[in-house]
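Consider the record:
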Amino acid sequence: MFLAIGLVIVTHLVVPVFFLVWLWRGGEKSKLEWLLTTLTVLFYSVHIFLVGRWDFFGYFLRFVLGGAFLVVTFRSLKKLKPLPVYPARNLGSYVSLGISSLIALLFLGALVAYIPNGYVLRGESVELFFPLGNGTYYVGHGGSSPVLNHHHVNAAQRYALDIVKLNRFGTRATGLYPSSLPSYTIFAEPLYSPCDGTVTEAVGDLSDLTPPESDGENLAGNHVLMQCPGADVVLAHLQRGSLLVQPGDNVRAGDAIARIGNSGNITEPHLHIHARKPNPGATLLEGEGLLITFDGRFLVRNSLFFGQDND
């Protein structure tokens, strides 16, 4: 997990600053070189804007990145007029153009081939009641592509969502990766039923773990499996001892059923929710996943949902 945090720092902070400084300093010998440099910075900025996990550093930092790109590009335009259209015909110029072209094409390819697919609604869907209360909630994993949703490779969890809650600074926790569970804004938040339905499975006695500990044997941790109209819905990683329901209970949408915890195969507190077609399979990972909408919205990574009190 600490390696993953380091990667997030590099991809979200170090690389964008490097690219922006590169564009700010200029040094291009032709308009063509400037265009390729600008496209490289643009494609990376759009890529990380869309697929980045901005709940680590502050949700609105992604918009700062976009604004910085516009400012730096405008400044670099002032240096563009006296430059020739094409670079000098020498080996150094060709190497520089080749590297810039390759980088730009790589990011352009990722944008075109993978990211748009994550926003496409495919197949059947189920409309659910948003199961969390008042506050601003952020989708860390969600969408129709593995680039935006690491659950997408599993048939039953194809459209699963991992949801955290943002604090007033737009981050999911106090600190980058704290070990204290209360430091995570969503920890111990009330969880509400996503539908009028019946509880078919409920586990609530597994321990809440200290990040980055995880339980590879009990993947869902404390969880509730509900039979909703047209779908089975799994709500996972709940707090030990917080369940208010048991198998056989009939509940209505908005009824309190548990609290968010940190149990199961998890690296930090969040709500995992996925829906599947009604399925008599033996495990939660069996079945065919269904796309979930809340208030008619299909949520993907970096989507925000503004919850309301359910009292």
In short: Residues 233 and 275 are 4 Å apart (CA to CA). The two ends are 37 Å apart (CA to CA).
